[in-house]
């Protein structure tokens, strides 16, 4: 069938611009793909308390065409298999600077997502089954509900999270307009651990907090963020009065463009330190 019959057609010269971001949210096997005129958004959820989404803007692609009367296309897919397909050529080339080109096409409800990868004349054709269950939770934050917003250098913040006691069941985030400003606390087999990040620390780019607020999250909720921190340049943290937290990661692709990954986590009601 010709390309004009596709609901979605997307082409990119370097598949790593896509796979790099999708691997960051691949902590669960399935994800929901939403295509709009702005680009692709892939959403992953875990137990209705963690939601991760990767947004790949249409400017990342050399060609991006969406032909749907609703200006959207959506489907659920096995994200682990998708990532495996996108990385099938990783480490195979011996030519410096060689990249793998990707073509994705989707013909609509009930049809598979078709993937064609080409590197140095070698072509791989994949067809991935799609599902119609596209329901996801709405974790959008209203600006008026946000109590604090902090922007940090991702590399430095990664070192903080990596050092957290992994034997701890919970992680507490505390923000305040006054000292200690930003404190992370865990309590595990090694005892109680606290790390403070002052407002004027070199790793802090922006700090805005209207009043003291704290919330506890299960360590298992925070741990998947480390994948994004490994490849991000900046991380923005926002928290509402109800304790809903959003960590947004800015990720630079191999083409020096930017994609974004967001993690929403709900607080643990029965968490105790």
Automatic annotation (TrEMBL):
* Database matches in InterPro entries: Cell_cycle_checkpoint_Rad1, DNA_clamp_sf, Rad1_Rec1_Rad17
**Biological processes, Gene Ontology terms:** DNA damage checkpoint signaling; DNA repair
Q: Where in the cell is it found?
A: Nucleus
> What keywords were assigned to this record?
DNA damage, DNA repair, Nucleus
Keyword Nucleus present in the record's keywords: the answer is yes
State a single Pfam family of this protein: Rad1
What GO cellular-component annotations does this UniProt entry give? checkpoint clamp complex
Q: What is its main location?
A: nucleus
Family, per the entry? Belongs to the rad1 family.
- Indicate what this protein is called per its UniProt record: Cell cycle checkpoint protein RAD1
In which organism is this protein found? Parthenolecanium corni
């Amino acid at each position: 069938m010709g390309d004009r019959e596709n609901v979605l057609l997307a082409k990119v010269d370097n598949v790593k611009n896509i796979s790099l971001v999708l691997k960051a949210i691949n902590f669960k096997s399935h994800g929901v793909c939403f295509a709009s005129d702005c680009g692709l958004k892939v959403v992953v959820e875990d137990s209705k308390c963690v939601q991760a989404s990767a947004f790949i803007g249409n400017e990342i692609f050399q060609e991006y065409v969406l032909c749907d009367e609703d200006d959207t296309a959506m489907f659920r897919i096995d994200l682990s298999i998708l990532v495996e397909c996108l990385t099938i050529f990783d480490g195979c080339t011996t030519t410096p600077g060689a990249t793998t080109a990707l073509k994705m096409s989707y013909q609509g409800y009930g049809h598979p997502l078709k993937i064609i990868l080409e590197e140095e004349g070698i072509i791989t054709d994949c067809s991935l089954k799609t599902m119609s269950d596209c329901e996801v939770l709405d974790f959008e934050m209203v600006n008026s509900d946000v109590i604090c917003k902090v922007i940090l250098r991702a590399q430095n913040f990664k070192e903080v999270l990596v050092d957290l006691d992994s034997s701890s069941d919970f992680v507490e985030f505390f923000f305040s307009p006054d000292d200690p400003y930003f404190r992370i606390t865990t309590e595990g087999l090694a005892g109680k651990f606290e790390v403070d990040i002052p407002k004027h620390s070199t790793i802090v780019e922006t700090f805005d907090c209207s009043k003291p607020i704290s919330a506890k999250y299960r360590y298992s909720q925070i741990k998947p963020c480390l994948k994004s921190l490994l490849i991000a340049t900046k991380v923005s943290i926002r928290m509402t009065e109800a304790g809903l937290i959003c960590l947004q990661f800015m990720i630079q692709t191999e083409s020096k463009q930017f994609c974004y990954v967001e993690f929403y986590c709900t607080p643990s009601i029965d968490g105790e330190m």
